[in-house]
Write a structure and sequence with these properties.
This protein is mainly β and about 170 residues long. About 0% of the residues lie in helices and about 55% in strands. The relative contact order is 0.12.
Length: about 170
Protein backbone atom coordinates (compact mmCIF):
# COMPACT_ATOMS: atom_id res chain seq x y z
CA UNK A 1 0.00 0.00 0.00
CA UNK A 2 0.87 3.67 -0.23
CA UNK A 3 0.27 6.67 2.04
CA UNK A 4 0.95 10.32 1.25
CA UNK A 5 1.03 13.32 3.55
CA UNK A 6 3.51 15.76 5.05
CA UNK A 7 5.77 16.23 8.02
CA UNK A 8 4.79 19.33 9.99
CA UNK A 9 6.98 22.27 10.98
CA UNK A 10 9.89 21.48 13.22
CA UNK A 11 12.90 23.70 13.86
CA UNK A 12 12.58 25.77 10.68
CA UNK A 13 11.55 22.96 8.32
CA UNK A 14 7.89 23.13 7.35
CA UNK A 15 5.36 21.04 5.48
CA UNK A 16 7.63 18.69 3.59
CA UNK A 17 5.73 16.14 1.48
CA UNK A 18 6.27 12.54 2.52
CA UNK A 19 5.43 9.32 0.72
CA UNK A 20 5.33 5.94 2.48
CA UNK A 21 5.22 2.50 0.87
CA UNK A 22 4.16 -0.70 2.65
CA UNK A 23 5.24 -4.20 1.74
CA UNK A 24 4.75 -7.37 3.77
CA UNK A 25 8.51 -7.97 3.86
CA UNK A 26 9.64 -4.47 4.91
CA UNK A 27 6.63 -2.83 6.56
CA UNK A 28 6.25 0.94 6.08
CA UNK A 29 9.24 2.63 4.43
CA UNK A 30 9.75 6.22 3.29
CA UNK A 31 9.81 6.31 -0.51
CA UNK A 32 12.39 8.35 -2.39
CA UNK A 33 10.89 11.36 -4.15
CA UNK A 34 12.27 12.92 -7.33
CA UNK A 35 13.42 16.53 -7.18
CA UNK A 36 10.86 19.17 -8.13
CA UNK A 37 11.72 20.74 -11.49
CA UNK A 38 11.21 24.26 -10.11
CA UNK A 39 13.65 23.72 -7.24
CA UNK A 40 11.05 24.13 -4.47
CA UNK A 41 10.49 21.45 -1.79
CA UNK A 42 7.55 19.05 -2.02
CA UNK A 43 4.79 20.55 0.08
CA UNK A 44 1.73 18.75 1.46
CA UNK A 45 0.57 15.61 -0.32
CA UNK A 46 -3.17 15.16 0.08
CA UNK A 47 -4.14 12.01 -1.82
CA UNK A 48 -2.70 8.98 -3.58
CA UNK A 49 -4.41 6.55 -5.95
CA UNK A 50 -2.71 3.42 -7.30
CA UNK A 51 -4.07 0.91 -9.80
CA UNK A 52 -1.64 -1.82 -10.77
CA UNK A 53 1.62 -0.15 -11.77
CA UNK A 54 0.01 3.27 -12.41
CA UNK A 55 -0.38 5.85 -9.68
CA UNK A 56 -0.97 9.55 -9.03
CA UNK A 57 -0.26 11.72 -6.01
CA UNK A 58 -2.12 15.00 -5.55
CA UNK A 59 -0.67 17.68 -3.38
CA UNK A 60 -1.07 21.21 -2.23
CA UNK A 61 1.96 23.04 -3.47
CA UNK A 62 3.90 26.16 -2.64
CA UNK A 63 2.49 27.57 -5.88
CA UNK A 64 1.26 31.13 -5.68
CA UNK A 65 1.97 33.11 -8.87
CA UNK A 66 1.86 36.38 -6.95
CA UNK A 67 4.28 35.40 -4.16
CA UNK A 68 6.36 32.73 -5.93
CA UNK A 69 6.28 33.39 -9.70
CA UNK A 70 8.91 30.71 -10.38
CA UNK A 71 7.05 27.85 -8.64
CA UNK A 72 4.47 25.44 -10.04
CA UNK A 73 1.98 22.84 -8.85
CA UNK A 74 2.81 19.24 -9.60
CA UNK A 75 1.32 15.82 -9.51
CA UNK A 76 3.58 12.83 -9.06
CA UNK A 77 2.90 10.01 -11.51
CA UNK A 78 3.94 6.40 -10.93
CA UNK A 79 4.60 4.71 -14.23
CA UNK A 80 5.85 1.23 -13.45
CA UNK A 81 8.51 1.64 -10.78
CA UNK A 82 9.39 5.36 -10.50
CA UNK A 83 7.62 8.61 -9.64
CA UNK A 84 7.79 11.50 -12.12
CA UNK A 85 6.66 15.11 -11.52
CA UNK A 86 3.96 16.31 -13.93
CA UNK A 87 2.90 19.97 -14.00
CA UNK A 88 -0.59 20.38 -12.54
CA UNK A 89 -3.10 23.04 -13.59
CA UNK A 90 -4.66 23.14 -10.10
CA UNK A 91 -3.65 22.92 -6.46
CA UNK A 92 -5.06 19.41 -6.04
CA UNK A 93 -6.70 17.88 -2.99
CA UNK A 94 -7.88 14.57 -4.44
CA UNK A 95 -7.11 12.32 -7.40
CA UNK A 96 -8.79 9.25 -8.90
CA UNK A 97 -7.48 6.94 -11.61
CA UNK A 98 -9.80 5.75 -14.36
CA UNK A 99 -7.15 3.87 -16.34
CA UNK A 100 -3.40 3.97 -17.03
CA UNK A 101 -4.06 6.87 -19.43
CA UNK A 102 -6.88 8.73 -17.67
CA UNK A 103 -7.37 10.32 -14.24
CA UNK A 104 -9.39 13.09 -12.58
CA UNK A 105 -8.47 15.47 -9.77
CA UNK A 106 -10.18 18.18 -7.71
CA UNK A 107 -8.85 21.27 -6.00
CA UNK A 108 -8.52 25.02 -6.54
CA UNK A 109 -7.10 27.00 -9.44
CA UNK A 110 -4.80 30.02 -8.98
CA UNK A 111 -7.83 32.20 -8.19
CA UNK A 112 -8.88 29.79 -5.40
CA UNK A 113 -11.89 28.67 -7.45
CA UNK A 114 -13.09 25.07 -7.14
CA UNK A 115 -11.87 23.17 -10.18
CA UNK A 116 -11.56 19.76 -11.75
CA UNK A 117 -8.54 18.58 -13.70
CA UNK A 118 -8.67 15.77 -16.25
CA UNK A 119 -5.64 13.76 -17.41
CA UNK A 120 -6.10 12.42 -20.92
CA UNK A 121 -3.89 12.12 -24.01
CA UNK A 122 -0.76 12.65 -21.90
CA UNK A 123 -1.60 15.97 -20.22
CA UNK A 124 -3.79 17.62 -17.60
CA UNK A 125 -6.43 20.21 -18.44
CA UNK A 126 -8.85 22.21 -16.27
CA UNK A 127 -12.54 21.30 -16.46
CA UNK A 128 -14.85 23.88 -14.92
CA UNK A 129 -17.49 22.48 -12.56
CA UNK A 130 -21.13 23.46 -12.75
CA UNK A 131 -22.03 26.75 -11.13
CA UNK A 132 -21.15 26.47 -7.45
CA UNK A 133 -21.51 28.91 -4.55
CA UNK A 134 -18.62 31.30 -3.88
CA UNK A 135 -15.92 29.95 -1.56
CA UNK A 136 -16.53 26.33 -2.58
CA UNK A 137 -13.70 23.87 -1.93
CA UNK A 138 -13.53 20.41 -3.49
CA UNK A 139 -11.72 17.89 -1.29
CA UNK A 140 -11.84 14.51 -2.99
CA UNK A 141 -12.98 12.63 -6.06
CA UNK A 142 -13.71 9.00 -6.84
CA UNK A 143 -14.34 7.84 -10.39
CA UNK A 144 -16.23 4.56 -10.75
CA UNK A 145 -15.30 4.46 -14.44
CA UNK A 146 -14.71 6.90 -17.33
CA UNK A 147 -18.37 7.95 -17.34
CA UNK A 148 -19.34 8.13 -13.67
CA UNK A 149 -17.82 9.57 -10.53
CA UNK A 150 -18.37 11.59 -7.38
CA UNK A 151 -16.67 14.68 -5.96
CA UNK A 152 -17.15 16.03 -2.44
CA UNK A 153 -16.32 19.27 -0.69
CA UNK A 154 -17.95 22.20 1.04
CA UNK A 155 -19.10 25.77 0.50
CA UNK A 156 -18.63 28.50 3.09
CA UNK A 157 -21.47 30.96 3.51
CA UNK A 158 -19.32 32.96 5.94
CA UNK A 159 -15.88 32.58 7.49
CA UNK A 160 -17.02 30.50 10.46
CA UNK A 161 -16.72 26.68 10.42
CA UNK A 162 -20.38 26.23 11.35
CA UNK A 163 -21.39 27.99 8.16
CA UNK A 164 -20.01 25.25 5.88
CA UNK A 165 -22.46 23.46 3.58
CA UNK A 166 -21.49 20.00 2.31
CA UNK A 167 -21.30 19.62 -1.48
CA UNK A 168 -21.54 16.35 -3.40
CA UNK A 169 -21.33 16.33 -7.20
CA UNK A 170 -22.16 13.40 -9.48
CA UNK A 171 -20.67 13.04 -12.95
Amino acid sequence: GWAAGYSACSYGTCDTGILMHYTANSGWQTATLPDRPDGWHWDTFSDVDIQGSTGWIAGRGTYNPYLYPDSSNYFLRLDGSSWTPITAPIDANGVSIVSADEAWAVGQDIYNTASFAHFSNGSWSIVRPPTLPNRTYLNDIYMLNANEGWAVGYAMSSYTPRAAQCIMLHY
